[in-house]
Amino acid sequence: MLTWAVIRRSAGQVRAVMGGVYALDFGAILMLAHAMGALNPLLVDVLPEIEPIVVNAYRRNADPS
Q: For residue 65, what pLDDT band results from cuts at 50, 70 and 90?
């Protein structure tokens, strides 16, 4: 359950430039998970899998069309 909470909050831990979001900040997410007591191997394995989903969601929301 805590792992899911970290994943939901990870969408706010991004790396961005003027062109928009280009990645998740894994360091910040792992520190958040540690602080929440949710740092585990499953979270570490799943982060690279959810990164493109979050980045693409930011891109879709930024698209003015």
A: low
Q: What angle do CA 6, 40, 36 make, to 5 degrees?
A: 40
The pTM for the full model equals 0.84
Q: Please state the domain count of the chain.
A: 1
> Between helices 41-62 and 2-10, what is the axis angle to 10°?
30
Mean of pLDDT values over 33-43: 93
Residue 16 Cα distances to 24, 34, 41, angstroms: 9, 23, 26
| pLDDT given for residue 17 in this prediction | 94
How many Cα atoms are found within 13 Å in the side-chain-facing hemisphere of 43? 23
Full domain range(s) for residue 26: 2-62
